[in-house]
């Protein structure tokens, strides 16, 4: 059994922080609190190296067989803060000496290569539980029903997300098809035209931080449910394997997702083609989207088909259970390889 110590200021944002994944790893991996018991120490953000580099160096110096792993679930963090988001084996310079570490992230590991259900939706059962009743409802609607819904929607478009304008938040790695989209989606939100456009989130509207809400995900779904024709679903980062909850939120609330995905992006295998609008361009260029744009019958038919597909996907726990097993097996393989 592999013994792992999770460490750092961001330890609550990595696969081993989530009960469904930890439970699936039972018998294969054990979390420990003492570095003298650990075979692997994980951190979750490049900032952890900056904050705790000397302490980590001392841990490894005291136990030569101990391995340090930057296990990152966030391409946003990797691309905005890490000098190299791609190399598997790297070295960080500390005052005490060079600190070798391995990197496991969306870019270089199979951990996050979803087959049916993206990683983020596996981290807490509430996400799929929130989707199920809405997708069941939506699956019963015909293309004609959706045309009427979109025609009479209360809002032409809705957006929820923090307004970001800092250059740090739009990194570009063209050779890897990795693009920061935080500034892009903020600009898209600003430029979107329509008679009724709803913009929510830090920098757009007043209110407490979403993270302070008892259930920020449920709150979002309730705010937008059957109220918008289009809903912004842009990720903060375009990375080929990174798909969050956002496009699923749009389908669950009965809105057409506005998204950004290149030809090799995972969303094309996870979501049916059609039923969502893709604004992919290289480099990313936000244009003024007119959200009064009517939805065609062909688009409504594709949308209805995707709703039926998603309702079927989440109708039973089997796909999520299989995906959890895939994640656990991939984590185990990666850690075992680092120890061999």
From TrEMBL:
Fucosyltransferase C-terminal domain residues: 217-273
SUPFAM superfamilies referenced in this protein's UniProt entry, alphabetically: UDP-Glycosyltransferase/glycogen phosphorylase
Record InterPro entries: Glyco_tran_10_C, GT10-like_C_sf
Protein's UniProt keywords contain Transferase: yes
Signal peptide: none
Molecular-function GO term, any one: glycosyltransferase activity
Coiled-coil regions listed in the entry: none
Pfam families attached to this UniProt entry: Glyco_transf_10 (PF00852)
Keyword annotations: Glycosyltransferase, Transferase
Keyword Ubl conjugation: no
UniProt name for this protein: Glycosyltransferase family 10 (Fucosyltransferase) C-term
């Amino acid at each position: 059994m592999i013994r792992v110590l999770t460490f750092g200021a961001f330890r609550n944002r990595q696969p081993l922080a989530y009960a469904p994944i930890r439970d699936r790893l039972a018998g294969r991996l054990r979390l420990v609190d003492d570095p003298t018991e650990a075979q692997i120490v994980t951190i979750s953000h490049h900032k952890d190296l900056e904050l705790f580099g000397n302490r980590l160096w001392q841990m490894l110096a005291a136990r030569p067989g101990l391995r340090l792993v930057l296990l990152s679930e966030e391409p946003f963090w990797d691309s905005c803060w890490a000098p190299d988001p791609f190399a598997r084996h790297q070295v960080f310079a500390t005052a005490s000496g060079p600190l070798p570490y391995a990197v496991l992230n969306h870019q270089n590991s199979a951990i996050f290569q979803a087959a049916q259900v993206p990683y983020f939706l596996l981290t807490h059962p509430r996400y799929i539980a929130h989707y199920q009743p809405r997708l069941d409802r939506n699956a019963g609607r015909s293309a004609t029903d959706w045309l009427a819904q979109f025609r009479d929607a209360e809002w032409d478009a809705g957006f929820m997300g923090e307004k970001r304008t800092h250059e740090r938040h739009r990194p570009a790695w063209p050779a890897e098809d990795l693009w920061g989209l935080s500034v892009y989606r903020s600009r898209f939100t600003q430029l979107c035209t329509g008679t009724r456009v709803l913009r929510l989130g830090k920098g757009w509207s007043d209110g407490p931080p979403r993270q302070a809400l008892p259930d920020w995900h449920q709150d979002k779904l309730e705010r937008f449910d059957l109220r918008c024709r289009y809903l912004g679903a842009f990720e903060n980062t375009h990375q080929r394997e990174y798909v969050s909850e956002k496009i699923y939120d749009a389908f669950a609330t009965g809105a057409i997702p506005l998204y950004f995905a290149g030809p090799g992006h995972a969303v094309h295998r996870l979501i049916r083609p059609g039923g969502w609008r893709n604004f992919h361009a290289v480099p990313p260029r936000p244009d003024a989207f007119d959200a009064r744009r009517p939805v065609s019958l062909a688009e409504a038919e594709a949308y209805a088909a995707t709703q039926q597909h998603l309702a079927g996907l989440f109708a039973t726990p089997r796909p999520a259970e299989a995906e959890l097993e895939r994640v656990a097996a991939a984590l185990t393989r990666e850690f075992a390889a680092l120890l061999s």
